[in-house]
Amino acid sequence: MALKFGFWSEQETQVGQSYARRLHELVDEVRLAEKVGFDCVALSEQHVALGGISSSAPEVVYGYLAAVTSRVKLRSAVTLMPQRINHALRSAERLAVTDILSHGRMEFYGGRANTTIAMRAFNVDPAETLAQMEEGIALLRRSMREDIFTFEGKYYQIPPRQLVPKPVQKPYPVIGIAATSERSHNWAGSEGLAVMSHSIYQGWEIQKKLLTAYRKAWKRDEQGPLDRPRVGIPLFFGIGPTDQKAKEDYAEPLMHYARISTDAYPRLAKLADDYSYMSESVPSMERAGRDWDYLLNQSATTVCGSPDTVIRQIEQYEALGVDEVLLHLDSVPHHKIMEAIDMVGRYVIPHFNDKNNIVRPTEEILDTIRAMRPQNSGSSKKAV
Asked: Domain Luciferase-like spans what residues (predicted)?
């Protein structure tokens, strides 16, 4: 099965630039991504965020994108599942409506929230986010799968009701979670969910361990849409005509993102037992924010270089058996993102998915032709 490519954005806006303009730029980026061959568009959900990240209402953006795209999958990556941020039944309603408007192109990935600034803004208790995510996804699936449903849990108690309308995709769209702990990988596998896996910059061995845990725990949900495990890995990404140019354009933005995106993790590790595992990754997170070589080559999170280098790097993730890579194209100005999308579509995606349509050197083709001729044909080397 060919490796899938996703365009992943948090709508990051550069200092001095307009949030409003950035949102319209995102639409242009998505349309180009679809045109050049990306398989899905994944939008983050972040609230009252610092540092320029402004994807506060991706569910609104999906409705707009459904009208201006025709092929690419539209994925929440992720919808935050704490009850005070998104009631699970409202998430089911929004998912169903956008699935209808997009003619069956929605995918839903949930997450528990990983910033204290958002949790405090919505009065979310960090000790409850994991349980609320798991219960919320159970409600989400039941409401879409069953005609009239009921639900009795710790956080949700719903008498007999009907989800109106229901999604186009039956029994429901692909559902997954973002997972960084071994526990969440195990849970996703046991529930027959897809997973967007991340090692929190801890490197290749930890990433392999997490994927092994997920696959080992996998158990098909006979009432769900997936018949096999589905693994996606988000990759922080940069590309340029040469390795040096890519480094010049992307090294500092990517290290800066590593610093700001994990800033809350040490605090979270102290606030609730369910987040305590994050303390183990603190040294790796700190190193990723200041050591370019570690970030690029050892953290198992980042891809950056010329098209040829990027291809070799992505092949390492393909060797892990992942089904898709989600390229985080953000942290640089809009024109650089558009250039990156074009280069990925021109050079990278065809290498993995359309190799027989890539122009190769004439001598390479002739050598193959000559090698395929009968050895006793007596024809000259130059003959074709």
From this structure: 4-324
Query: Distance between CA atoms of 89 and 136, rounded to whole angstroms?
Result: 8
Q: Give which of 295, 285, 311 is closest to 251, Cα–Cα.
A: 295
DSSP bridge partners of 77: 109
For residue 18 the two structure tokens come to: 């307009």
CB atoms within 10 A of CB 380: 6
Q: Which domains does the chain have, with CATH numbers?
A: 4-372 (3.20.20.30)
Distances from the Cα of 133 to the Cα of 38, 155, 188, angstroms: 29, 10, 11
CA distance 282 to 291: 14
Cβ neighbourhood burial of 175 (10 Å; 0-12, 13-18, 19+): buried
Q: What is the number of H-type helices and E-type strands within the chain?
A: 15, 11
Per-residue DSSP letter, 2? P
Does the pLDDT of residue 379 top 80, yes or no?
no
Helix %, strand %, coil % of the chain (to 5): 50, 15, 35
pLDDT tens by residue, 260-312: 888 888 888 898 999 999 999 989 999 999 999 999 999 999 999 999 999 99
Closest of 268, 254, 272, 219 to residue 336, by C-alpha: 254
CA distance 84 to 115: 14
